[in-house]
Design a protein that fits this description.
This protein is 70% helix and 0% strand. By secondary structure, the protein is mainly alpha-helical.
């Protein structure tokens, strides 16, 4: 079939690195319960949060990186490179999985804290360790906060044929994604979890955000330019953001929620994150529209040094994400020992972000050392 997608221009888009770094920081903060610092993250002011941003950018960058390769070198080469990335994600998840559960088990034993085993959903390892570990390798068993990477692995694993179709019929592929999302919500499709239940991030629904990112990368944003740049669209988007913030506050603060009809508050609370509710997806689309309108790719502010740490974390996203998930457990435990004072919450949050940033800088520096030196070799002595 003829190619209808519009490939993005070559060169790094710092906006992707910036917002992916922000997503990693926000996920770390949001995973620490009773933490005053996580009030700076977007989940408190609307329907979507950092997970939506992470999945969207993952779909965008997957198309940005592999679409041109698939066109220039063929489907097989592009697919194998995608599967190589899937393998890297899977290995990272297994390493994080093992370190995570060993740390939880050690803390529970060392401090005689049996509740932490149940809180982080690892009690099955005590009752049936072999089967629980096997289910963990199959991505069915997931301790608390280890849900995002399995979702990413599954979406990337099925992406090669989807990308092939997206390059040829982007709008039709996007409509198919919407149809699958609607059908999954209507018929209750999801993947089974272990020892029971279903995936917290329903991949049949969350693929919509991943494919939306891919669609935007391959020309969808260009097609929607007139809509994005319309003043009416801007005001509608701002109005929806305000409405989403009010409904989120109404769900969190009962006294404030009493000012609104209960049928209205109940329609948006609790927020259906598992199946990616329509209002949640729309909220994220609105954020994308306003971001594209006001933060251009060539915006000079992207070069400001103040953004360098978060951009660096976005450029080393996988390692920073894994470190952040582990540090969120450490931070939660440290706060439980320190009685969770405000200063302790601030210290744990800033300390965790500092460690994540240090890891990003180290990995970036290490990769630079692996590149061949551009300096000429010294002349041999005569």
């Amino acid at each position: 079939m003829e190619i209808h997608a519009i490939l993005p221009p070559k060169g790094r888009d710092l906006r992707l690195d910036l917002f992916r770094g922000i997503a990693n920081w926000a996920i770390f903060l949001d995973h620490i319960p009773d933490n005053v610092v996580n009030w700076i993250t977007t989940r408190n002011y609307g329907f979507s949060d950092a997970a939506d941003l992470f999945v969207f950018i993952s779909g965008y960058t997957a198309s940005f990186v592999y679409a041109r390769m698939m066109l220039e070198r063929g489907f097989v080469v592009g697919a194998t490179r995608l599967f190589k990335r899937v393998w890297q994600l899977y290995v990272a998840h297994i390493i994080l999985f093992v370190i995570y559960i060993v740390s939880i088990g050690y803390i529970a034993y060392r401090f005689r804290d049996a509740d932490i085993v149940n809180e982080f959903n690892v009690a099955g390892l005590i009752e049936n360790p072999v089967e629980t570990l096997r289910q963990g390798l199959l991505l069915k068993f997931k301790p608390l906060n280890l849900d995002v990477l399995p979702l990413y692995i599954v979406l990337m694993g099925f992406f090669p044929p989807v990308l092939w179709m997206m390059l040829r019929r982007p709008n039709l592929t996007m409509l198919g994604s919407i149809a699958l999302w609607l059908a999954a919500r209507q018929f209750g499709w999801n993947l089974p979890g272990f020892p029971g239940g279903e995936w917290y991030f329903n991949p049949f629904c969350w693929q919509l955000l991943f494919l939306f990112g891919s669609w935007c990368a391959l020309g969808g944003g260009t097609q929607a330019a007139s809509f994005v740049n319309s003043p009416a669209t801007t005001w509608l988007c701002i109005g929806y953001l305000v409405f989403a913030m009010l409904m989120t506050f109404a769900g969190r603060f009962p006294d404030f929620g009493a000012w609104f009809p209960q049928w209205l508050v109940g329609a948006f609370n609790p927020n259906d994150k598992t199946n990616l509710a329509w209002y949640r997806f729309l909220h994220f689309v609105v954020i994308v529209v306003l971001t594209v309108k006001f933060v251009k790719k060539d915006w000079p502010g992207l070069e400001w040094r103040i953004w360098e740490p978060v951009i660096k974390c976005g450029q080393q996203s996988l390692a920073v994400f894994c470190v952040g998930v582990f540090l969120s457990f450490v931070g939660h435990f440290v706060l439980s020992l320190s009685y969770g004072s405000v200063w302790a919450q601030i210290g744990v949050s800033l300390g965790g972000i500092a460690i994540m940033t240090a890891v990003a800088y180290y990995i970036s520096w290490s990769k630079q050392q692996d590149k061949p030196s551009s300096k000429p070799a010294p002349a041999a002595a005569s």
